[in-house]
Amino acid sequence: MSEIKANQTLDCKGLACPMPIVKTKKAMDRLEAGQVIEVQATDKGSLADIQGWAQNTGHQYIGTIEEGNVLKHYIRKSAPEEVKDEKKHPYIVSAEELENKLAAGENVVVLDVREPAEYAFNRIPGAVSIPLGELESRIHELNPDDDIHVVCRTGIRSDLACRLLAEKGFKNVKNVEPGMSGWTGPTEKNRS
Is 17 a catalytic residue? Predict the structure, then answer.
C-alpha cells in the first residue's frame, strides 16, 4: 500500500475520549478544504469516535492504519458547502436521573457503548455492552420499543450511538451525560 500523504499530523497518543475528538475538531478548523489530517491515537475507542464524528460533520473519513498499538486515522476536510452543523441528540438525562430511575425499579435498558476493557472494570449493574464501533452490526440485539439509556465515559460516544439508534427507528433513546465519569451509583466489574 502506498504511503498516505497528510497535510498535518496530530498526536493524540495516550489520550482517552473525548480528547482525540476535541483536538481533531480544533485542528480541522486550521486546515483548507481538501487537506488531509492524520490523527495518531492509542485509544481503541477512537476508531468509532473518529468515524462517527466525520460522518456527523460531513468531513470524509478516509481510513485507519494500525501500526503496533497506534491507530493512524485519516480525515479529509470537506468544502464549506459539504460540512454539516454538528447536531447533538436532543434527549439527555443526567447520570443522577438514571440512577434514580434504576433505584425506583423503572424498566430501562442501560446500553454501554464503551470499549470492552472499560466495561469490564467499571459498569452499571445489568448494563448491555455493545461498543460503538459494533453498534450498527449488532443493532438487532436491541428492542426499538425499549426505553434505552446510552452511556459511555463522557457522553460523546453515547451521543453518536443515540443518533444512530434514532436514525434506525428507535423512538425512546436518551443520552446519559456526563456518562460514567459522572456516575456515583452502584457499579460492578468482571471477576478475575
Answer: yes
